[in-house]
Write a structure and sequence with these properties.
With about 375 residues, this protein is an alpha/beta fold. The protein is about 35% helix and about 20% strand. The structure holds adenosine-5'-triphosphate and magnesium ion. Adenosine-5'-triphosphate binds next to helix 2. The site of adenosine-5'-triphosphate has 20 residues, from helix 2.
Length: about 375
């Protein structure tokens, strides 16, 4: 496998725990912090399990967003590049269904994708999941939210009756419990969350009025040493408006949200990853699982409403031992949410100091 070529010298704690357990055939519910290597923790044992002499779908990797599907399949292909004849297919909404149908005429061993499209393909009897005995759900709590749950249940029922299920996420709210009891009651549970937030991320808030937010952002841009930043808004409309304002201020900036055409989303994702622009304004579409190591600053232009969303957002920086900075613009209306999220995460978000030491987030 291409593990060393990826620069992985030794396994991270989640990999050390999950890989042998998955290889032993057990169901797994794994919780570990953002950026600690969960992806390879399921990809490596899945690649090990695949039998390329059999021409059917054996492994299903489900993720909640199209960009994450692209990222995950790319990693799967990289790590699995030395496995002869291995066929990995990525399939998501927003692409031509016919292309997927054509692709499925040839052998596919691993399918990585978003639930809706895979369900569509299996409903049309184009993707045969009947012999698929390994199901990975990354960002599992998101996949089990009401918007996906029904499709997910349907998909699982289409897979082999004896199958291994693995749930991965940094957050497992109690809503996941019912699914776990039903589908993987004897799962091996891994919980590497001794504390909830990442040690390498410094968090601050700036108390502002709504109409001061853009000015405040401008000040942050001029004072901070931003390698790349992700700036999150709470609605699609606000993403577009803010991106326009940032561009007017003279900064290079892209934006991405779920209402854009997929081709545009792909281009933005690709170009931001390649460093074509310093700032990316986004909705929560882009805050789960996306791994861009050069992002050292996350700005919550709008403060999120719950602690899971908060964790995933700030976890876009400070990945795998890197340092990161999270700045929250807080209005009067956000004050209770700020307090609640601090309580739930057992963390203190301090007021922003006049000067932020670069050693806290530049490395
Ligand atoms: N063993 C390893 N050695 C070095 N780097 C690693 C190792 N495992 C993973 N990484 C790197 O760490 C980064 C974060 O990994 P990954 O995206 O899997 O995190 P995650 O736990 O899934 O985070 P999130 O909860 O945000 O999705 C990636 O850039 C990955 O290449
Ligand atoms: Mg991940």
């Amino acid at each position: 496998m291409g593990i060393f070529e990826k620069g992985f010298e030794r396994p991270s704690p989640i990999q050390e725990d999950a890989i042998p357990t998955i290889l032993a055939g057990r169901d797994v519910l794994a919780r570990a912090k953002n950026g600690t290597g969960k992806t390879a923790a399921f990809i490596i044992p899945c690649l090990e399990k695949v039998d390329t002499s059999l021409n059917h779908i054996q492994i299903l990797m489900l993720v909640p967003t199209r960009e994450l599907a692209l990222q995950t399949s790319a990693i799967c292909k990289e790590i699995g590049k030395h496995l002869d004849n291995l066929q990995i297919m990525v399939t998501t909404g927003g692409t031509n269904l016919k292309d997927d149908i054509m692709r499925l005429y040839s052998p596919v061993h691993i399918v990585v994708g978003t639930p809706g499209r895979i369900h569509d393909l299996s409903d049309k009897k184009i993707a045969d999941l009947g012999k698929c005995n390994t199901i990975v759900m990354d960002e599992a709590d998101k996949l089990l939210s009401p918007e996906f749950q029904e499709v997910l249940e349907a998909l699982i029922s289409k897979c082999a009756p004896k199958r291994q299920i693995m749930l991965f996420s940094a957050t497992f709210p109690v809503t996941v419990k019912g699914f776990k009891e039903k589908h993987l009651p004897n799962a091996h549970i891994i919980n590497l969350m001794d504390e909830l937030t990442l040690r390498g991320i410094t968090q601050y808030y700036a108390f502002v009025e709504e109409r001061q937010k853009v000015k405040c952002l401008n000040t942050l841009f001029s004072k901070l040493e931003i390698n790349q930043s992700i700036i999150v808004c709470n609605s699609v409309n606000r993403v577009e408006l803010l991106a326009k304002k940032i561009t007017e201020l003279g900064y290079s900036c892209f934006y991405i949200h779920a209402k854009m055409k997929q081709a545009d989303r792909n281009r933005v994702f690709h170009e931001f990853r390649n460093g074509a622009t310093r700032h990316l304004v986004c909705s929560d579409l882009f805050t789960r699982g996306i791994d861009i190591q050069s992002v050292n600053v996350v700005i919550n232009f709008d403060f999120p409403k719950n602690s899971e969303t908060y964790l995933h957002r700030i976890g876009r920086s400070g990945r795998f031992g890197h340092l990161g900075l999270a700045i929250n613009l807080i209005t009067y209306d956000d004050r209770f949410n700020l307090y609640r999220i601090e309580q739930e995460l057992g963390t203190e978000i301090k007021p922003i100091p006049p000067v932020i030491d670069r050693n806290l987030y530049c490395r």
